[in-house]
Write a structure and sequence with these properties.
Elements: H1 3-10, H2 16-29, H3 33-40, H4 45-56, H5 78-84, E1 86-92, E2 95-100, H6 106-116, E3 120-124, H7 127-139
Parallel strand pairs: 2-3
Antiparallel strand pairs: 1-2
Helix pairs in contact: 2-3
Length: 156
């Protein structure tokens, strides 16, 4: 088996039955396979994120990198960020540094690039870490629940 699923099987982290179940559920729901696999396997969140990091050769987000307020909060809605499991960490000379639980989500990366006008630099984070950061910012009123930019509110 190829891809990330094969990577996980080769390392003994999941079984072929896990992959088949995740593929079936993803096919029925339309959700990305990575997100479904994260839910249906018995892998701890950190182990799953480490595996993503290794497979895609993308560094993990360090605890010290989580800001109190997401970058580009003026043009990325909370609903979009939640729906795609992403969190804008910082802006550097290279672009918007984005925490993601699914680096294969090209739609989200392209939408962020379009909305911000900046290239996207990905870092891997566990979905729970991203959800917690979004919730902290939402409670503190540091992120918009809606935005006028329709591009980042639609799901394909």
């Amino acid at each position: 088996m190829d891809g990330f699923e094969g990577f996980l099987i080769e390392r003994g982290l999941i079984s072929l039955a896990d992959v088949e179940k995740a593929q079936r559920l993803a096919g029925n729901s339309g959700e990305p396979l990575t997100g479904v696999m994260r839910r249906v396997t018995n892998l701890e969140a950190g182990v799953f994120a480490d595996a993503l990091s290794s497979y895609y050769n993308i560094v993990r987000v360090k605890t010290s990198e989580w800001p109190d307020k997401p970058v580009a909060a003026h043009c990325l809605s909370l609903s979009f960020l939640r729906a795609h499991g992403i969190f804008p960490l910082s802006q550097t000379d290279e672009g918007i540094v984005l925490a993601t639980a699914d680096p294969g989500n090209a739609y989200a990366m392209d939408a962020v690039k379009l909305a911000t006008g900046c290239p996207v630099v990905m870092k891997i984070a566990d979905a729970g870490e991203i959800d917690a950061a979004l919730e902290r910012c939402a409670r503190a009123g540091k992120i918009r629940r809606q935005t006028r930019n329709r591009v980042v509110n639609r799901r394909q």
